[in-house]
C-alpha cells in the first residue's frame, strides 16, 4: 500500500514538474514574440498603408549621454525635474521620493506602495522568473502606485510641490512641500479616480502655465471625462472639463485609456487635444457612437467665441490604435501639424500625416521593438527643431500580455530629416539599451549647462542621462 502511494506521489510530482516546465510556454507563447501586429486594427481596417520603416540609423555624432543610476528599485513609472529644496540645483522627483542634487540622496515624499492587479498564477510566476533570468519574481507583478509626476508651486508658498497622477483608477493628488523638513509630505486630493496611461502637462488653455490633461472622475468611475486641471498664479487649482456636444463623446471609466497629446491641429492658434483609441466610445446618450469600434481615436477642437466662451468640437480619427503620449508637430513641412506616438502595449512607433478634410495617413517610423509607452518631444541637438525621445517599456503588462516584453529595453532619440526625394526620415540615435523607459519621459536641462538631459523611472529604477558634446 505504501509503495503504491509512493508511486502515485512520485507520478504527481513528475506531472507537476512537467506542467511547470512546459505549460507556461504553451499558454503564453502568443505573447512572447514579435508578431506582425501594427498594420491592421481589430475592426479589420488598415492602420498603416506601408510596411516600410522610415527610420535610418545615425552615423557618428558629437552628442552622447552619461548614464547615472539614482535608484535600482522599481517604485515609479516616471520622473520630473525641479528645484525642490530651493538651493538652485535641479532635483529629480518621482511619485514616492525625490533625489537631491548633486549627490542624488533620496528623500521620502510618501511611503512606496504597490497595486497588485491580480493574483499571479503558477505560469505567471514561471514566465516572469525564467524570462527575466531570475531578476524578477512573483512580487514584481505588482505595479507601483506612482506613475506620473509633475510639479508646480500649488499653494504659492515659494516651494515646489509634487503633482501625482497615480496608477489607473488610483487618483490625482498634490503633495505639499514641507519646506525642507524630512518625512512624508501632506497629501491633498484633486480627483479620486484617474483613467489614463499618458497624461500630459501642457498649456492647453493658453494661460502661460501648463495644466494636467487627463481622463479622471470626481466621484464614481462611470462619471469619467477628460479634464484640464489648472494651477493658476493665484494658487490652488481649477478643474476644466473638455467636453463636446457633437457625436463621439467618450464617457465612462474607459476614457481615455491610452494616447493623449495637445497642440494646434487645425492651425487656428488654439491648442487642441488629441487621443488614441479607448475601450468603448459613446455619445451623450450613452449609445455607441457612429462607426464605433475599439480603434477610433480623435481630437477635440478648441473654440473660443467673441465673448471669450470656450467650447470643444469632436473629430474622429479612424482607425487609430492605443497609444502613448501623442506629439503634435509638422513632420513633412506642409504647414499642417501631424501626430507622432508609439503603441504602448504593442509593436511600433508611428506618425500620422494630416491630409485634407480631417483625414489622416499612418506611417511606420520604427517597428523593430515593442512597448514604446512613453514619447516626448524636445530639441535635443539645439537646432531649433523638435526631436523625439522614446524607447521600450520593459514588462509594460507585467511580462504576461504584450509581445516581446522581455526584449532589449532601448532608449532612443530621433531627429527628423529629409531624404533624397524630400520625404521625411527619422534619424535614430541610441542613448542606452539597459533600462528602457517607463510611462513618462522628462527632458530638461538638469545640470543647467545649456544641454538637454533625460530623466526616466522604469522597471529597473530611476535613471538620468546627462547630455555631453564632443568637438
Please tell me about this protein's structure.
The chain has a five-stranded mixed sheet, with no helix packed on it. Strands 13, 14, 15, 16 and 17 form a five-stranded antiparallel sheet that branches. It is built from two helices and 32 strands. The longest helix has 27 residues, at 2-28. The chain is globular. With 471 residues, the protein is mainly beta. α1 crosses α2 (122-131). The protein has helices at 2-28, 122-131, and strands at residues 55-57, 63-71, 80-82, 91-93, 97-100, 105-108, 114-115, 143-144, 146-152, 161-166, 172-175, 187-191, 193-194, 200-202, 211-217, 225-230, 238-242, 260-263, 272-275, 297-304, 310-317, 327-329, 338-342, 347-354, 360-370, 375-378, 387-391, 411-418, 424-432, 441-444, 453-458, 461-469.
What's the count of strands?
Answer: 32
Classify the secondary structure makeup into a structural class: mainly beta
Determine the number of helices (DSSP H or I, runs of at least 4 residues).
2
What topology, given as strand order, has the largest sheet? 1-29-28-27-26
Task: Give the overall average pLDDT.
Answer: 82
Please state the CA-atom Rg, rounded to the nearest Å: 23 Å
Q: Kindly estimate the percentage of residues that lie in beta strands according to DSSP.
A: 35-45%
Q: How far apart, in Å, are the first and last alpha carbons?
A: 83 Å
Helix content: under 10%
Low-pLDDT stretches are 27-47, 116-120, 249-254, 279-295
Any idea what the shape is? globular
Please outline the major beta sheet.
Answer: 5 strands, mixed
Amino acid at each position: 500500500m505504501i509503495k503504491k502511494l509512493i508511486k502515485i506521489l512520485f507520478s504527481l510530482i513528475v506531472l507537476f514538474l512537467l506542467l511547470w516546465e512546459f505549460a507556461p510556454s504553451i499558454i503564453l507563447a502568443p505573447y512572447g514574440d514579435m508578431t506582425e501586429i501594427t498594420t491592421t486594427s481589430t475592426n479589420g481596417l488598415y492602420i498603416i498603408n506601408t510596411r516600410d520603416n522610415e527610420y535610418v540609423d545615425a552615423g557618428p555624432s558629437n552628442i552622447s549621454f552619461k548614464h547615472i543610476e539614482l535608484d535600482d528599485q522599481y517604485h515609479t513609472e516616471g520622473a520630473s525635474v525641479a528645484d525642490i529644496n530651493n538651493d538652485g540645483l535641479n532635483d529629480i522627483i518621482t511619485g514616492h521620493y525625490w533625489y537631491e542634487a548633486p549627490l542624488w540622496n533620496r528623500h521620502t515624499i510618501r511611503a512606496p506602495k504597490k497595486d497588485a492587479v491580480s493574483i499571479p498564477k503558477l505560469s505567471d510566476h514561471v514566465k516572469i522568473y525564467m524570462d527575466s533570468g531570475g531578476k524578477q519574481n512573483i512580487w514584481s507583478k505588482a505595479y507601483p502606485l506612482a506613475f506620473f509626476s509633475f510639479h508646480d508651486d500649488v499653494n504659492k508658498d515659494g516651494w515646489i510641490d509634487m503633482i501625482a497622477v497615480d496608477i489607473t483608477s488610483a487618483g490625482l493628488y498634490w503633495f505639499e512641500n514641507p519646506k525642507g523638513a524630512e518625512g512624508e509630505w501632506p497629501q491633498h486630493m484633486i480627483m479620486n479616480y484617474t483613467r489614463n496611461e499618458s497624461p500630459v502637462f501642457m498649456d492647453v488653455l493658453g494661460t502661460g502655465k501648463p495644466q494636467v490633461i487627463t481622463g479622471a472622475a470626481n466621484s464614481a468611475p462611470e462619471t469619467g471625462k477628460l479634464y484640464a486641471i489648472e494651477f493658476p498664479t493665484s494658487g490652488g487649482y481649477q478643474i476644466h472639463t473638455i467636453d463636446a456636444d457633437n457625436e463621439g463623446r467618450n464617457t465612462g471609466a474607459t476614457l481615455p485609456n491610452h494616447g493623449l497629446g495637445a497642440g494646434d491641429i487645425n492651425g487656428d492658434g488654439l491648442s487642441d487635444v488629441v487621443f488614441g483609441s479607448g475601450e468603448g466610445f459613446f455619445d451623450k446618450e450613452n449609445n455607441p457612437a457612429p462607426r464605433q469600434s475599439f480603434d477610433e481615436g480623435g481630437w477635440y477642437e478648441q473654440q473660443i467665441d467673441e465673448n471669450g466662451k470656450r467650447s470643444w468640437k469632436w473629430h474622429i480619427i479612424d482607425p487609430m490604435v492605443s497609444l502613448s503620449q501623442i506629439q503634435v508637430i509638422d513632420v513633412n513641412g506642409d504647414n499642417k501639424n501631424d501626430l507622432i506616438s508609439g503603441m504602448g502595449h504593442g509593436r511600433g512607433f508611428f506618425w500620422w500625416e494630416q491630409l485634407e478634410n480631417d483625414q489622416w495617413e499612418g506611417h511606420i517610423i520604427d517597428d523593430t521593438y515593442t512597448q514604446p509607452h512613453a514619447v516626448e518631444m524636445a530639441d535635443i541637438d539645439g537646432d531649433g527643431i523638435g526631436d523625439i525621445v522614446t524607447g521600450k517599456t520593459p514588462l509594460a503588462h507585467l511580462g504576461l500580455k504584450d509581445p516581446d516584453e522581455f526584449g532589449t529595453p532601448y532608449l532612443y532619440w530621433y531627429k527628423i530629416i529629409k531624404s533624397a526625394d524630400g520625404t521625411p526620415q527619422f534619424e535614430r540615435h541610441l542613448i542606452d539599451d539597459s533600462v528602457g523607459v517607463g510611462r513618462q519621459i522628462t527632458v530638461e536641462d538638469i545640470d543647467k549647462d545649456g544641454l538637454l538631459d533625460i530623466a526616466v523611472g522604469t522597471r529597473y529604477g530611476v535613471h538620468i542621462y546627462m547630455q555631453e558634446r564632443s568637438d
